[in-house]
Amino acid sequence: MIADSANTQRVDLAIEQNGGRAHGLFGEFEETKVFYVLMGRLLSRRTRKGGLFILLVLLILTVWLYQAHRVKSSEKETKNNSSNAHHSYAELSYSEPSSPCNGDCEAYTNRLKRYCHSSLFDGNEQISSNEGRLTNDDYELVHVHIVARHGDRTPVSNLRLGPRVYYECGLVQESINWNGLNDFTPHFLTPSSRGIEPQIQFHPGTQRHECGDVKGIGKLTLLGYKQHVYLGKLMRDKYDNFVAPIIEDVPSLRNGVYVQSTQVLRTILSLSAFMLGFLPDSTELRRATTVHISHGTLLEAPPVGIETVYKHCHGYSQLWNEDRRQTGYLTSEDKRRHLITNLCGMFGLVSKCQSLSVAKVFEQLSIRGCHRPLDPLPCVKNNGPCVSYPQALELFKFADWAWSNGHPLKTSIIATMPFLTHSILSPMQRVIESYQRSISLAGSYKFMVSLTHDDAITKMLTNLGVRVSEWIPYATRVVFELWKKKDEELYEVRILLNGEVVTPQCGGWREGMNDELIPYPVLKVFLTSGTHRELKYYNNMCTTT
């Protein structure tokens, strides 16, 4: 037994010295440790002799070699399936198809580039970003709120068109410091409707992990993680002078910074990735950062220190469907659904597609294109027909149309009034009152970050009066900046979408105002009064408790 224990310890030590990995005959994988430990124990028992013992050892070795070969073959297939995806992860850029691409192919490719991550890049070049600076030097920045969509993800349904695609969504210890995610402290503002709180604890693996269709539904990918690390660094660069005093120590951070996310894991991860890029490399500051998690995708719960004005709108889905019916959206959508039927019919999935939105069907092509841009469009197996570029382009146009028309104004107002009141207007008001009274009030956060989803951002922009004509890309950001005119009690708001000023598109902006700013009182009046915007109307339309 002494020899047995010594052999086992030597094997464990060798594996530990190798970073937790054991080298097998067919490569590196965790199960090799089990084999070495087992063989070490068996071979240490010198008292066992004879053919039976030798046969047992050979049998174990044969089974192990067979399993190892299967693992290696699977890893090789995964690597081949994902080689193009890994190419695009190296830099946050989009690879152009190598073969000539004209007409519909070129139009589809250009639209795909805008969807994949055009919030950060125009082609392979970083887009212009105007956050944090005004052309007028008479103002000082006093408050910033960044509202962002989560990063690149896997499809949200288990529908599969064509061959299986693997997306890198595992924890990759050797390429990113995933351990930093565990430093952030989750705090749940509202209980989960299912009584289950999502976990924010992650354990880095020692190998790349590829997730396929079913196992990785709606998961943040490694690309999505990198997008938000990059976005965090970009925002830190843009607001460095403003935020440096706020994040210089733990007390300042806790009083001046507020970050929140929906309860969906991909938004929690995206927010954590953003803060990893945004904060200095300090474990102490990360651990002092509380990730406030709100039930629902619209971030209705008010931030800590802000009173509740709007309660949850029960029955919103029914209101939304009725609004879409009255505006003629549902009728127009039915006329276009033949595009989905034709696509799904090629792959024998018509019945499965009937209950899915155009976005969920088409993302099977768009997400594949974001990760495998060098691949042709999918084909039916056994030399069956392939999706054509004209067909894919028409489907993308359908998806864009659905996204820009499927969120009518009335229900977009109802959906986003809680967030705009609780998380946008109220913190601004607290900051203004803090300056006026020269004291720090609860809820007067100077820097805020909210992570949510594409539909919530689209509805919010619709409420503001900013026209959305396309399906918004991953890591899209809407930034609200509150500026104070120096030596005056004048506070004005600037709104930016992916680095471009959109304030003049806001419904409350008028000719004669600054071409970048809208006075805070004007914005507040626009959002809280008039048709569909009054609190009384909200309460009448919603069954509140």
Structure description:
The chain folds into two domains: 2-88; 99-128 and 141-187 and 223-545, Phosphoglycerate mutase-like (Rossmann fold), CATH 3.40.50.1240. The chain is an alpha/beta fold and 545 residues long. The chain is built from 19 helices and 15 strands. Strands 5, 7, 9, 10, 11, 12, 13, 14 and 15 form a nine-stranded mixed beta sheet that branches. Strands 1-2 form a two-stranded antiparallel sheet. The radius of gyration is 27 Å and the shape is globular.
What is the name of the CATH class of the largest domain?
Alpha Beta
Range of strand content: 5-15%
| Secondary-structure-derived class | alpha/beta
Gyration radius over CA: 27 Å
Shape: globular
- Number of discrete domains: 2
Q: How far from one another are the termini? A: 68 Å
Sheet with the most strands, sense and barrel status? 9 strands, mixed
